[in-house]
Structures are given as structure tokens and as C-alpha cells.
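Please fill in the sequence for the structure shown.

STRUCTURE ENCODING:
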């Protein structure tokens, strides 16, 4: 039986930048904030961490720093996906050497692989490492979705631990759960789908919102895992407006903007990402005020 890499709320942590370099001291403070508020895993150098704009050295140093700073308190899962199988396998081997407890592997983007291509891609990477791998299905970004039958084939590989499912298709998640063995784990990749996915056997979430609300996202998953879906549903509904605001523009534009408004000094976004529109900046600020995180008409400039 495969053991899940984690249960609960994992944060897809942002990468803070300062003058075009990774700000490791600020990253350390952000990690501490997560651990103090119950976050169950740190996912570093993923989509929210702007990994595709980072150099190889930046990416590996950031993973190394995260592993060192967390120091075994929770699992560290490193994003090592690419649209090149060879590059993704190399990144995965190096993340493994850096001490990552798990690897997060997005579907190849732009290439738009067939389902057989996805099977071969993931099998090659999983064969290249000993570290457990989490598949990452996010068709809105990559242009390709992993089919339930493909999950069933990949679930045969002992080193493929499960999937971060951000496809937004609950029917496919049900079919995946029926086709795959019980020890193939599913985590929600969408903050507003935690409760329904956990109700279908999911083990938690890899969360953007947890960058701002780690305690709330941890509590949400705990309610689900404790089988208190009535309370979990109420909390999910309460958090809905916050989730929507954190995706009013392409992630991680809103969440990084929110962190800066809260004086976390997360720094700039790297091009081609840019600051939000004036209307969405106002929406993000108003949402932070609504949830009691920021006083009205206050906060440092973004």
C-alpha cells in the first residue's frame, strides 16, 4: 500500500522576489507563518511560485532552502514538471538530491500530448527517481487533461502517489476514484472544490488561498477528514468570495498582490505576469477588508 505524501492542506507557496532575486529571508518567514498555522505540506516552485520564470540555479536553491528551513516538520513537495520529459526527469532527480519529500509534475503544456504520451511521459519520470510523484492536472493552463483511464494506468506505477486535480470536473474525479486503487491519492487543486473532492475520497488540497488563510484551509480539510461535512460545507461557502478574489486574474497575480497589501513583502511578479488592473486591485483590497485582514483604506502600496 502506498502511503499518501500528506493529508490536509498543502500550500502552493509563492516565491518572493527582491530586485529580481529570490528573497530567501522573506520565504523563510512565509514558511514559518504556514507552519505556525497548521499547514500540512509546503509545495515549492509550482505554478504559484512562478517556477517557469526561475533559472535552474534559483529553482534548486529555493527547493534546498525550503527543505532546510522546514527541517522535516512537514513534507516538502517540489514542482519539477516541464513540457520536456527529459528536462522534467532531470529537474526531478535534482529536486530529489535537494531533499524534497515529493515531486509535483504538471502535464506537459503546449505540446498537448495524447493520453498514451502522458502515460509514457510520467512513467519515464517516475522511473528516474525514488521520490514519490504527484501528477498535476490543470487543463485550463496546459491545454491537455488526464483522462480517468490514464490515471488508472499510471496508478499501477508504485512511485506515482496520486494527483493534484484541478480539472474542475467532478464527474471525472468520481470515475477516477472508481477506476483507481484506494491508495492512489487525490488532492483538490481548486480551493473552492475542497469539500466535494474530499467527499469523493480526496485527502485534502494543494492551496493558493492558504498563502493568506492557512489556518482556515487546514480547518476546512480537517472537518472533511473528520466526516463533518455539514460544518465543512458552511466553511467552504464562507470562503467562496475569498477564493474567487484570489483568482480574479491569473494566479499568482492576486495572491501575491494580497501578500504585499498585508506587508509580507512578497515582491514583484515576473514578466509576463504583471500587476492587476485597478479594478481588480480594488477587489483584492476590499476582500482583505471583508475578511478582517486589512483595515479599510489602509495597507502599503503594491
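FILLED IN BY: designer on duty
SEQUENCE:
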Amino acid at each position: 500500500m502506498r502511503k499518501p505524501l500528506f493529508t490536509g492542506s498543502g500550500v502552493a507557496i509563492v516565491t518572493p522576489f527582491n530586485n529580481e532575486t529570490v528573497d530567501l529571508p522573506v520565504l523563510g518567514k512565509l514558511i514559518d507563518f504556514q507552519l505556525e498555522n497548521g499547514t500540512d505540506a509546503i509545495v515549492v516552485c509550482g505554478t504559484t511560485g512562478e517556477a517557469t520564470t526561475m533559472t535552474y540555479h534559483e529553482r534548486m536553491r529555493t527547493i534546498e532552502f525550503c527543505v532546510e528551513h522546514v527541517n522535516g516538520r512537514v513534507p516538502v513537495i517540489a514542482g519539477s514538471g516541464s513540457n520536456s520529459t527529459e528536462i522534467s526527469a532531470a529537474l526531478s532527480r535534482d529536486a530529489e538530491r535537494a531533499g524534497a519529500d515529493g515531486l509535483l509534475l504538471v502535464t506537459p503544456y503546449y505540446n498537448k500530448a495524447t493520453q498514451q504520451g502522458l502515460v509514457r511521459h510520467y512513467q519515464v519520470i517516475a522511473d528516474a527517481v525514488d521520490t514519490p510523484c504527484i501528477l498535476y492536472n490543470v487543463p485550463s493552463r496546459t491545454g491537455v487533461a488526464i483522462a480517468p483511464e490514464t490515471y488508472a494506468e499510471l496508478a499501477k506505477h508504485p512511485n506515482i502517489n496520486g494527483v493534484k486535480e484541478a480539472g474542475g470536473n467532478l464527474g471525472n474525479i468520481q470515475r477516477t476514484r472508481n477506476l483507481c486503487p484506494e491508495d492512489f491519492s487525490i488532492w483538490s487543486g481548486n480551493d473552492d472544490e475542497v469539500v466535494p473532492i474530499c467527499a469523493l475520497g480526496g485527502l485534502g488540497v494543494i492551496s493558493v488561498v492558504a498563502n493568506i488563510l492557512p489556518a482556515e484551509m487546514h480547518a476546512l480539510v480537517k472537518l472533511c477528514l473528520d466526516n463533518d461535512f455539514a460544518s465543512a460545507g458552511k466553511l467552504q461557502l464562507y470562503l467562496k468570495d475569498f477564493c474567487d478574489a484570489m483568482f480574479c486574474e491569473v494566479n499568482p497575480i492576486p495572491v501575491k498582490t494580497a501578500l504585499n497589501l498585508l506587508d509580507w513583502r512578497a515582491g514583484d511578479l515576473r514578466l509576463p505576469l504583471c500587476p492587476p488592473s485597478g479594478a481588480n486591485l480594488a477587489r483584492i483590497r476590499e476582500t482583505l477588508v471583508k475578511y478582517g485582514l486589512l483595515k479599510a483604506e489602509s495597507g502599503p502600496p503594491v
